Amino acid sequence: MSRTKSLKMKTIYSLFTFLVILSSCKKGEPSQNCSPSITTLSGTYKIVSLKYKAAASAQEIDYLSFLDDCEKDDQVKLNSNKTYNNIDAGVSCNPSTNNEGTWNLVGNKIESDGQIQGEIQSFDCSTLVVFSKDAVMPGDKLTFTFKKL
Known about the structure:
The chain is α+β, with helices and mostly antiparallel strands. It has one domain (38-148): Lipocalin (Beta Barrel). The chain has an 8-stranded antiparallel β-barrel. It contains 3 helices and 9 strands; from the N terminus they run ααββαβββββββ. 20% of the residues lie in helices and 37% in strands.
């Protein structure tokens, strides 16, 4: 066998070994159970989107732009004991938006006397999307998107 052929074979073998090792590595973290529960929903959230539709056929409106800057950076902490804390984070509002209350998960719906309430549209253990129908008037829909911090 010539020296060039031997070198090519070693290179091919090394490349093949590298690819086998690379393909045997884990492809990320094991998936979490992201079914909504008191445990999985508990955590601190920040609102990232607020959309409003006056009717199913109406154009969606970005309601987040109507919030004061001091409200856009606020946080909501859902505690596992079914209490929550609104945290006036970042730019402070006057008067402060700090408050607390209770929340619960009933089926696929978050019941609360606070900001996070309504039917869960989606939840991936990081992003929570909830909506409320008939929020302002009959037939409308208000959709909140929260990012877990």
